[in-house]
């Protein structure tokens, strides 16, 4: 009988310790610290910017009011200036919603004198509308405000070219009294009022105006142009300080 061959047990290979996998912990810690530092920087920067903005004084400008359209008494202790563009929808809101309250409560009783200065920056026909207003003002200072009201009441779209010479001529003929229309048409054709409009633009730029409407009260910019309650509060504060 043949003998079964005894199987030799397989030798288990000796275990050789391999290289330990490198830990990612130092890198994680490093990038976490970097992220924390960056986040802290941005939070500090944001808080510092907000504090600076909160503490920043409003823009001030020493206006020369001579030659500008105005409503109200020259002896009024408060001078209010609006920089506007006849194509500006927000200016229309100010004219129709805020200005009437200012006029009723403060202009008509001699406490506020209100001035309008052109800042036609939206489009070329913004300048055309400003020139037409200056031409009306040069002929009839009181009639300027009829033109001012009529343009806003008939304002077209901000992106549409509606304030053309023909449109404005027709507007003046229908809404503005005591204007020599032949002279109006001739001066518009000859670009007579462009220098006056450019003077207004220079004033706006020197005052730091970048949008419309922008209002100044006694030479200081007042940012809450659409908040009549805030405007009224500021007027009353100034009147109290003047002992009025």
UniProtKB/TrEMBL annotation:
<keyword id="KW-1133">Transmembrane helix</keyword>
<dbReference type="GO" id="GO:0016491">
    <property type="term" value="F:oxidoreductase activity"/>
</dbReference>
<keyword id="KW-0560">Oxidoreductase</keyword>
<dbReference type="Pfam" id="PF13462">
    <property type="entry name" value="Thioredoxin_4"/>
</dbReference>
<keyword id="KW-0472">Membrane</keyword>
<keyword id="KW-0812">Transmembrane</keyword>
<feature type="compositionally biased region" description="Basic residues">
    <location>
        <begin position="1"/>
        <end position="19"/>
    </location>
</feature>
<keyword id="KW-0732">Signal</keyword>
<dbReference type="InterPro" id="IPR036249">
    <property type="entry name" value="Thioredoxin-like_sf"/>
</dbReference>
<keyword id="KW-0676">Redox-active center</keyword>
<feature type="transmembrane region" description="Helical">
    <location>
        <begin position="25"/>
        <end position="47"/>
    </location>
</feature>
<protein>
    <submittedName>
        <fullName>Disulfide dehydrogenase</fullName>
    </submittedName>
</protein>
<keyword id="KW-1015">Disulfide bond</keyword>
<dbReference type="InterPro" id="IPR012336">
    <property type="entry name" value="Thioredoxin-like_fold"/>
</dbReference>
<dbReference type="InterPro" id="IPR013766">
    <property type="entry name" value="Thioredoxin_domain"/>
</dbReference>
<feature type="region of interest" description="Disordered">
    <location>
        <begin position="1"/>
        <end position="21"/>
    </location>
</feature>
<comment type="similarity">
    <text>Belongs to the thioredoxin family. DsbA subfamily.</text>
</comment>
<feature type="domain" description="Thioredoxin">
    <location>
        <begin position="47"/>
        <end position="240"/>
    </location>
</feature>
